[in-house]
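Students often ask why we bother predicting the structure of a whole assembly rather than each chain alone. The short answer is interfaces. A chain on its own may look different once its partners are present, and contacts between molecules only exist in the joint model. In this exercise we take two input lines together and write out one structure for the complete complex. Read the inputs first and try to guess which parts will touch.
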Amino acid sequence: MEAKKITVNHESDYTAIVQSTSFQTLLSEKKKFIIPITIFFFCFYFALPIMTSFSTVLNNKFIGSITWAWVFAFLQFVMTWGLCMLYSRKAAKFDDLAQKVINEGSRG
Amino acid sequence: MNTAAFTMFLGIVFVTLIITYYASKRTKNASEFYTAGGGLTGWQNGLAIAGDYMSAASFLGIAGAVALTGFDGFFYSIGFLVAYLVVLYLVAEPLRNLGKYTFADMIAARFDAKKVRGFAAMNTVTISIFYMIAQLVGAGALIKLLLGLEYTTSVLIVGILMTVYVIFGGMHATSWVQIIKAVLLMGGTFLISIVVFAKFNFSITEMFEQMKTATPLKEAFLNPGVKYKDGIDTLSLNLGLVLGTAGLPHILVRFFTVKDAKTARSSVVYATWIIGIFYVMTIFLGFGAAAFVGTNDIVAANAAGNMAAPLLAQALGGNMLFAFISAVAFATILAVVAGLVLTAASAFAHDFYNEILKKGKATEKQQVSMARYAAIGVSLVSIVLALGAQTLNVAFLVSLAFAVAASANLPVIIYTIYWKRFNTTGAIWAMVVGLISAIGLVIISPNVFSPEVGKAIFVGNPIFPYTTPGIISIPLGFIAGYLGSIFSSQKADAKKYDEVLVKSNLGIGQQ
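Now the answer. The structure tokens for the assembled complex follow.
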């Protein structure tokens, strides 16, 4: 990436970048994605130990001798892989937005 | 002595020393030593992260825990994996963009105070040494069981090898030892899992059906609550597991071995797939050991269940498979301890020596030789401590390292990246309170005090009722960072935070 080579020398330059519309767009797009997903995966993760510790509902059978606890445990893996791929896809868009900020900076 | 196992152990030693030889030719300056010049690709670093992370505690410990306690043992696998979402979503990319060689670099990118760097480096050294003692104690016990060598000899062998890798080969050698170990571990685990699955006729339902009667626990084996009977204690454990990874210094430094944030991201994605597949396979290892080795034999070999996986290999594939899996376990330990030595040595040589003592003006040559001396020093201290810690429970030491990492490092990382009002006082409070509360709570916990003779280090009633400190010490770390910032007379440096925002989001202005 060519634009990466630009250097920012003065403190005021950083503030100017932060205040630019394109940088603020990048930050708010990131926030809109990262905060809800983070809250979601923490809730999903802690739901398992909370349910196994304070109730026996997950001891019910799903198929054969497989209980819901194991199904929920496996879903934690599916969630992790899924959110991992989702992040990669989203982050590619953030890269484009970041590149826009960098291009504006090197032009100005 | 087991000849096949001995030969394979020698094979591992031979291959890793060749890697170290080639790595040593490339390790000419500080950047090569600390971060392999930042030249690893995404998949290489992904494998190296997996190799750095899947320790003997994961491989031997979780297999044993699932074999002996069923579902409760599997909690570790889940927590260790979901932790990577915290790494990927919140930490990896800003860390790569802000830091250079160490975790302390990242904090220092915002707070240019020697105190802050000093405390961050101290946390790195403390956590790494705790973790290393756990690995060395495990290594000593394992080699003693597998090859019949004395505990002291075993610890010394591993100790000398890890020192050699690091002082001669730096991060190049460490990374490649980790990559090869990850491939071996995945291969070995996959092989055993397939054989176990075949024994259950490739049917998940049949496997669960048989497990209902395979162990003395009967149906309880498949239900939660065999080991963790206290809900708060279970939550505390899970909190430490899921938040600890993102604060473990030896995992964090792996993100400096790639060229940019994009590659750091793709390496976490590779690592998450590899680590996730591995942890799914711990079910097969654990169930297989419980069904085909049997609880009595597992406990007879090692009360904590650490021999479950090698014994399963023996039961399934005879002496050759036993030898292979034992050698894989040996490689696993070597790869993890090498990473730990390097991380602690970097904190000494880069943070304490170069940045604090020499004000960042040490020559490349001075930095590399200091890093080598530091590696020797760190190894010596860890070996001595491990020799004295033979009777300590390995899993307990690892979970302690995770809890300390989550309490002492994670709050300061999150605030540094995301909180505008955070300041030097808050950073120091967060690190000190997190470290002291996590260690302090462990000292007064049931791991250290037990009314039963021989169950813990001291006889007595524990003041703190829970086995892991996370549920108290992690919030304390965050609260201390918050209060320290709010009550300090010092104003947060808004301009500096703008700089951090720009660097962490755009990856520009890096050194």
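Check your guess against this: Chain B has 19 helices and two strands.
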